[in-house]
């Protein structure tokens, strides 16, 4: 078995040097200012040992990676009733696409495309004030990462709020079908702010550990969800976590993973490890270009693909 510490260090060195860095997201002006040369990786094994490389300690905007955690919270609130509001199928469309919503009566294909995540956020909001719902999401992240210093980057949230015309269109369209229950501005506000949570690779990999270990953080002993639920969230990450790049990610990496336009990816190796990578440049589907390549190298060298070593 190759030495994980060496593999992680080699990947970080290799990724720092590569010229092909992808394109940083431009549609959120604040995100366009992030340095494309950044690269971070954190891997936490079953015993809780942390292996890091590059900028593993630098907070970045987790964006859509937050949707894994809002999904977890919403399932905790309403259980399987959530699936009346959102589907479980890959969309085959970009993350911010609107077309399927008309054909499918305002029910988004899955909880990870923007429309689906808006429905999930609306479930968490359920009649509360946006501030309370957001506080609940942030405290959940702090609890999972065991770090109360995690916060929201209000510059990014504000930038998205000012430029979030697509998301506003999606939310209003769903509201017209009755699949948003709260005032559209409330749901959008909470959504933009949870996407703007800033975390480092170390914090994100820590927060994901319950998904690698049957719903429970093996170090703290805290149970977050049941084994069944952890398995199902992983299944959704595998099939839908990279939008219309999900097939490619499964083909190349072979792990449940969730990407964000901030360049982060959370990937889960069942029973073995929780991994976070961060490289701000994106590919055409809006997923981290070097993040995916780093995970591909890591899983190949460690024999970690869920489809066989
Ligand atoms: N893919 C993403 O990370 C998208 C999240 C971003 N906040 C948006 O709504 O556009």
Automatic annotation (TrEMBL):
Tell me one GO biological process term.
Answer: glutamate biosynthetic process
Q: Is Acetylation one of the keywords UniProt gives this record?
A: yes
Q: Which family does it belong to?
A: Belongs to the glutaminase family.
SUPFAM superfamilies from the entry?
beta-lactamase/transpeptidase-like (SSF56601)
Q: What is the lineage of its organism?
A: Bacteria, Pseudomonadati, Pseudomonadota, Alphaproteobacteria, Hyphomicrobiales
Q: Which organism is it from?
A: Hansschlegelia quercus
**Subunit notes for this chain?**
Homotetramer.
Q: What transmembrane ranges does the database entry give?
A: none
A single GO molecular-function term is:
glutaminase activity
The record's NCBIfam families line, in alphabetical order, gives: Gln_ase, PRK00971.1-2
- InterPro entries to which the protein is assigned, alphabetical: Beta-lactam/transpept-like, Glutaminase
What Enzyme Commission number(s) does the record list for this chain? 3.5.1.2
- Name of the molecule in the record: Glutaminase
- Positions of substrate binding: 64, 114, 160, 167, 191, 243, 261
Q: Is the Magnesium keyword given for this protein?
A: no
Gene3D superfamilies named in the record: DD-peptidase/beta-lactamase superfamily
Domain of life, source organism: Bacteria
- PANTHER family reported for this sequence: GLUTAMINASE (PTHR12544)
Identify which top EC class this enzyme belongs to: hydrolase
Key words of the record: Acetylation, Hydrolase
Q: Which reaction is recorded as catalysed by this protein?
A: L-glutamine + H2O = L-glutamate + NH4(+)
